[in-house]
Amino acid sequence: MIEIRNISKTFHQKKQAFKALDQVSLNIDKGDIVGIIGFSGAGKSTLIRTVNLLERPDEGQIIINGKDFTQLSSKQLAEERKKIGMIFQHFNLLSSRTVFDNVALPLELDHSSKDQIKNKVNELLKIVGLEDKANDYPRSLSGGQKQRVAIARALANDPHLLLCDEATSALDPVTTQSILQLLKDINQRLGITILLITHEMEVIKSVCNHVAVIDKGKLLAKGTLSEIISNRENPVIQQFINSDVMTLPQELNNRLQKEPQDGLFPLVE
Ligand code: ADP
């Protein structure tokens, strides 16, 4: 459904070139929840931003539902982007608008009727559990509630894909789990594919079916959670999982001990 093919991106700053992405390839199936993990500066945000061409790659292709995004005109791209929701670490809500009006924004931009907006926003607020907050302003909400508003807004145009950029990094562990549970529910109930980036293994373990590890702009490994965790060879991957292995579900721990796997996974099918 989403094919990221050999994407590279170099930024130029103060006469210096910096390769943020280097020949990254990744396939994401419809309905999957894929986590991209890596240290700060690894290139995760750049990768996620290239998926809806907020960053245009220098080379490579982004193919979503058979369409090559790198070849679309600005007008075509704007239409395709409506079907991709995005949520961010700091929620990006408009403080001068109520919860209702924040969620309504994409529908207003799309010239929906007042009735359509009312019905849709109420439906979305129900999905994220904020029916009683419609008239509140963001300043009176907790971090978790703000992220719920941002998720409702991201769902306004019935997206097929949700991109989450460190969506739980500003939240405490309990709120993080409740937001991840909401994302899981949305994935299961609405069939929306989710691509999320994080530097926390805990987030990956809670929701992701597949994982890609990125470091210094390169894709180090990709596979199922158990495949990635059982990779004992790569020091970068080990740094992520070392402190977490003991907290893995017992069943997975038992399997890993029975079926040790060595080496990296093939980077490109
Ligand atoms: P991550 O999300 O993994 O923390 P980013 O994708 O944000 O990493 O950044 C990767 C690298 O690219 C960093 O060194 C960052 O400074 C650089 N970078 C990202 N965006 C820009 C930009 N617009 N201009 C210059 N450098 C950038």
Q: Which spans of ≥5 residues are poorly predicted at pLDDT below 50?
A: 245-269
Element pattern in H and E: EEEHEEHEHHHEHEHEEHHH
Biggest sheet architecture = 6 strands, mixed
**Approximately how much beta-strand content do the residues carry?**
15-25%
Q: What does the average pLDDT come to?
A: 87
Instruction: Tell me the distance between the termini.
Output: 15 Å
GO cellular component, one term: plasma membrane
Function: Part of the ABC transporter FtsEX involved in cellular division. Important for assembly or stability of the septal ring.
Protein name: Cell division ATP-binding protein FtsE
Keywords: Amino-acid transport, ATP-binding, Cell membrane, Hydrolase, Membrane, Nucleotide-binding, Translocase, Transport
Q: What does the model show?
A:
By secondary structure, the chain is α/β, with parallel strands linked by helices. 37% of the residues lie in helices and 25% in strands. The chain has ten helices and ten strands. The chain has helices spanning 44-51, 74-81, 99-109, 114-127, 143-154, 173-190, 201-207, 225-229, 235-241, 250-258; strands at 2-13, 16-28, 33-37, 59-64, 67-68, 84-88, 161-165, 193-198, 210-215, 218-224. Adenosine-5'-diphosphate binds at residues 11, 13, 18, 20, 38, 40-46. Belongs to the ABC transporter superfamily. Residues 2-241 form the ABC transporter domain. One of its GO terms (cellular component) is plasma membrane.
Topology:
Layout (H helix, E strand, L loop, with lengths): L1 E12 L2 E13 L4 E5 L6 H8 L7 E6 L2 E2 L5 H8 L2 E5 L10 H11 L4 H14 L15 H12 L6 E5 L7 H18 L2 E6 L2 H7 L2 E6 L2 E7 H5 L5 H7 L8 H9 L11
Parallel strand pairs: 3-8, 3-9, 6-7, 7-8
Antiparallel strand pairs: 1-2, 1-4, 4-5, 9-10
Helix pairs in contact: 3-4, 3-5, 4-5, 5-6
Adenosine-5'-diphosphate (ADP) binds next to strand 1, strand 2 and helix 1.
